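> example.struct
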């Protein structure tokens, strides 16, 4: 019973954060301030909650399979994060985008969080 309860709670928070991020992103896009920083982090929170809703029954077991998924997910995410940083540095260096340090760190944090949890979901379906 607890496992199903955890899954429903994660799903509730995922839907809540999706709705909240739609509202915040719509506000920042309409004012021309996208990405403000907090708006992309709300998307990452929604991804965390929705991925955990999918992964909760599997990860609660904490067996060899889940340890392998976590290890490989972090390994794969490391290279994606390096790629994100290289792309972000290149775009900033050549003045393709003009964003503040807070915005850049927020975008990189959101991309990192999203990549880690989405890689867990993809690897859990593979293994």
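> example.seq
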């Amino acid at each position: 019973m607890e496992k199903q309860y955890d899954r429903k709670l994660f799903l509730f928070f995922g839907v809540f954060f999706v709705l909240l991020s739609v509202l915040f992103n719509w506000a920042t896009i309409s004012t021309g301030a996208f990405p403000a920083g907090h708006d992309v982090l709300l998307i990452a929170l929604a991804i965390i909650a929705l991925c955990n809703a999918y992964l909760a029954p599997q990860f609660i077991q904490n067996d060899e399979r889940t340890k392998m998924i976590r290890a490989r997910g972090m390994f794969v995410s490391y290279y994606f994060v390096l790629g994100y940083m290289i792309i972000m540095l290149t775009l900033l260096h050549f003045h393709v985008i003009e964003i503040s340090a807070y915005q850049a760190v927020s975008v990189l944090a959101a991309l990192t969080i999203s990549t880690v949890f989405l890689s867990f979901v993809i690897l859990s379906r593979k293994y």
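> remarks
The chain has a mean pLDDT of 93.
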